[in-house]
Amino acid sequence: MTVEQQTVPAQPNSEEPQCALELLVHGVGGATPERMLDAPRTVRVTGDDTAGIHRRRGEEKGERTSTVEEPVAEAYCWSNLTSGNGARALWLVLLPFMVANLAHWARPAAAPAHPGQRAYDVLVRLLALSLTVLLVAAAGEVTMDLIAWQCAGSSHCVQNKSWLAFMTGEGWWARPGSRLLLGAALPALLTGLLWWLSHRTWSAYESAEPPTPQAAGPQSGPQSGPQSAQPSGPRESAEQPMLALPGFWYGRRLVAGLRAAHTAAGLLTVAGVLWAAAAHAHSGGALGALGWALGALHLACWAAVLTELCRRGRSERRPDTAKDTPTVRLLPGAALALLALTALHTAWPRPGWTTRGALPTPHLFGVLAVVQGALIALLALTAWWLQRGAARRSGGGEAPALKGLAGPTVALLACALAGVLSGGLIQRLADWLDRGATPGQGALAGPPVELSWQATMIPLVLLAVLAVAALAALRSRRESRRLQADVLRWYAGEDSANPPRPGDPRARSIAGAVSRARLTDVGPTALGTAALIVLLVGAGAVAGAWMSGEVPGAAAQGMPEPLPTLARLGQALGSWLMGAAFVLLLTLGRRAYKDPAARRSVGILWDVGTFWPRAAHPFAPPCYAERAVPDLTWRISSWIRTHPRGRLVVSGHSQGSVLAAAAVWQLPPAHRRRVALLTYGSPLHRLYGRWFPTYFGTAQLTALREALGGKDAGTWTNLWRRTDPIGGPVLPRPGPDRSGRSPRPPEPPTVDHPPLQDPLAYGRTDRHPLPAPILGHSDYQADPAFREQRRALLQRLAAGPAPHGPAVPAVTKAPAGPPDVGA
Fold first, then answer.
1. End-to-end CA distance of the chain
2. How far apart are CA 107 and CA 656, in angstroms?
C-alpha cells in the first residue's frame, strides 16, 4: 500500500468539549510519520517537506472523537532538517566548527552579572576564529606552498604532471608571484563558499521567527491586560530561565556579524601569505614602500576583525531583528579589496625572484597552535572562576561535567579535530607530490615542520585513547558481574516458567546491558583524560619543532638507537594515520550522500551537535532547533487557542524531549499551564544538564516542573530504563556529599517515574510467552506504563487554565550589561 501525504488546511475554531491531543516528537536518527503514528497512510496537517505536523489518514478532525484514553495523535517530523538532503553530508568537513560552537554553550552556570561570562564568550569566539584561519591556511598550504611554490618550481616534482606544465619555463605563469596568485584562488574561493553556505543555511533553516506576544494569544490571570501584548522588557525577562526568553532562538544579527568577521579573516589569511612571500623577495623603491603600506592596512583590517568579534554578544531578551551595523556590511568587502591589492603587488615582476625550499611563512601553524593553547588555558581559568561562583550560588550541589571544565575540553577537542583533518590533507598531498617519499625527507621541502612533528605524535595519542577505551571496557565487565545479583532481585517476584537463577545467561545479558548503558556516565572522565593527553602531546610537538627546526627523523640523527628508527617510523605511521582520517571523512560523506541509511547515521551526529544556535562559529552547520522550536511553539499555541477546553500532552523521545522542553519554555504562562509533558529516554539531565548547566541545570529543570503544575502532582512525567545509554532521570535525588552523608532532599522528585523493567519479563510468562527483548533506548510505547502515564497526565490537566496559576519562577537572569554591548 502506498503512503499518501497531502497538506490539509488548518482546523477552524472548534468547540468539542474535553478533546485531547498527543503531540509526538521523535528523537535522533529521524523517524517517518508512518512509524511514529503506526499507520500506513498519513496526512500532513501543516508544515512543508522539511518539517511538518502529520496525522493518520481519516483523523484530520480527530478531536471530535478523542478521549483521555485515546487522544488524537500528531507527529512532528523534523528529521529532514538534519539528514534529508544528501548534500548535507558534506557538512562533515565542518565538524571542528560545530564542536567549537558547543564550547560556547558548555559554560558553567554562574550569576548573570558575573564578569567572567563576557570573558568566556569572547575567548570562545577568538578560538573559533583561529579554526577558520587554520582551515584557510591549510588550503593555502596545499595550493600555494606545496603545488604553486615547491612542486611547480622543482623539475623532479613536475615530471609526469602535465597539469603543472604551464607553470614551468619562461612564461608569465612561471614567475613565482604569478604562481602564488593562481594558488591563492582556491583558499579565497573556499572562504567565499563558507560565507555563501552560512548565509544560505541561515535563510533556509534558522530564519523562523519565534511567536510574538500577539501571536501567542492573551495571557490569563494577573498577567493579562493591555501590557501583556507588549514585548518583554529587560526587567520582566530577567526573571525568566534563559530558554524562556523570547530572543533565545533567533539571533540573526549575531550570526551576520560573526560571518562578516570570519569571512574577512579568511581573506586576510590568504592576503597575509601573499604579502609575506612578496616581502621575502626584498623589493625596494616604490614597490617596497607599497609593501609596507599594505602591511599597515593588513594590521588595521585585523584590528577591525578582532574588534567586531569581541564586541558581539548574544541578546536573548528580545529577538535580534535589528539591521546590521555598517562594519558588518563593509568588513568582507574591505578584506576582499585588500586581497586584490596584495595579489597585484605579489604578481608584479621582480627580477631574480626564485622559489627555494618552503614558502616563507615561518612557523604559521606553530604560532596558530600556540595561540590556540593559550586561549584554551585562559578559557579553563575563566571556566574555573565561573564554576566557583556557580557552586556558591547552588550551595555546593551536583557538579557539572568535568567540574565545570567541559567548555575548555570541548574547545580542545575542536582544535585537535581541525589539526588532524588539515594536517592529514597536507601530509597526504605532500606524499603524493613527492612520489611516495616521507613528507620533508624527499626532493621537496615538504609541509611545515610542525605538522611533521604533529604526525609523529598521532600514534601516541591513538595508543592512549585505546588504553582509555580498554579501561572503560574492563570497568564495564566488572560492573556487569556485580549487577547480576541486582538483576535477580529486580525480577524476584515474577511468575514465569524459568525464574531468575544465579549464573543464568539471561541475567548476564541484562546486567551487561545495564553496565554498558552506565558507560555514558564515565564519558566525561574519559574525554577529559583524552583531552589532557592531546594537550601534552601537542605541546611536545610544537616544542620539538621549534627546538630542532627539522622533521623528527632528521632531528633524531646522531642519537642512540632505536630513537632515530622510532622517530622515522612514528612520522611515517602518523602521516598515514592523519591522511587516513581525512580520507575516511570524505568516504563517509560520499557514502552518506548516496545512501539514505548512512545519511541518517550522519544525521544523528548533527541532531546532537547542531541543537544549539551558532553563537561562536558562523560556519558551523545550521541550528535545526531555531526552526523546530518555533514550529512546536506555534503549533501548541494555535491548538490551545482553537480548542479552549482541550487537553494537550507533548510526548518527546530522546532528543525530541529536549525540543519539547525548549518549546514548552517558550510558551506564555497561560498556555504552559494547559500543557502536559511526557518525556522518555530523555537526556535532559544525563547529558544536557551536565554538559550545559546554564540552560538545563537542576534549577532550570525544577523551574520547568513547577511551571507545569507546581510542586505537588505536576503535569510532567519522565520514563526511563536502566538499560538506556542515553536517557535517565530528569530530577534525580542528590547523592552523598564529601563527608559521605546523604543530604536530605528538600522534596521527593515528582517528575521521574520509577525505572521501567527492561526486558518487560525475565522469562516466559502468560503475557510474554516468547522471550521479551532488551529494548534499551527504543520502543518506550511498548511498555504498559506509557499509556498509563499519558492517561494520568491528561486527567490532571484541568478543562481550562487556573485563574491565578503559577507563573515562571525566578531561576536565571538574562545577561545584562556587557553581553549586550554592540548587539
1. 54
2. 23
Cell of 221: 490571570
* Tens digits of residue pLDDT in 384-426: 999 988 887 765 556 788 989 999 999 999 999 998 888 888 8
> 108: which 3 cell numbers?
558553567
Question: Which residues fall within 8 angstroms of residue 1, CB to CB, at 6 or more apart?
Answer: 40, 41
> pTM of the full predicted structure?
0.86
Quick one: cell of 637?
499555541
Q: Which residue type, as a one-letter code, is found at position 387?
A: Q
Same domain, 521 and 438: yes
Any idea how long the chain is? 823
633: left (phi > 0), else alpha (psi -120 to 50), else beta?
alpha
pLDDT, tens only, 667-714: 988 888 889 999 999 999 999 999 999 999 888 998 898 888 765 557
CATH code of 53's domain: 3.40.50
| Count of Cβ atoms closer than 10 Å to residue 319 Cβ | 20
Residue 450: domain span: 91-114+153-160+357-621
Which residue bears the cell 504498559?
784
Closest-CA residue to 448 (of 563, 369, 373): 369
- How many separate helices (H) and strands (E) can be counted in the chain? 27, 7
Q: Are 528 and 534 in contact (CB under 8 A)?
A: no
3-class secondary structure, 161: coil
3-state secondary structure of 131: helix
| DSSP string over 378-407 | HHHHHHHHHHHHHHHHHTS----GGGGTHH
- Looking only at the bridges linking them, the beta strands covering 20-25 and 52-56 are unpaired
d(CA 641, CA 218): 9
State the number of CA atoms in the 13 A half-sphere of 360 facing the CB.
15
CB of 132 within 8 A of CB of 719? no
* Helical spans, DSSP H, in 505-562: 505-517, 523-548, 552-555
Same-domain status, 637 and 559: no
Residue 672 within any structural domain of the chain: yes
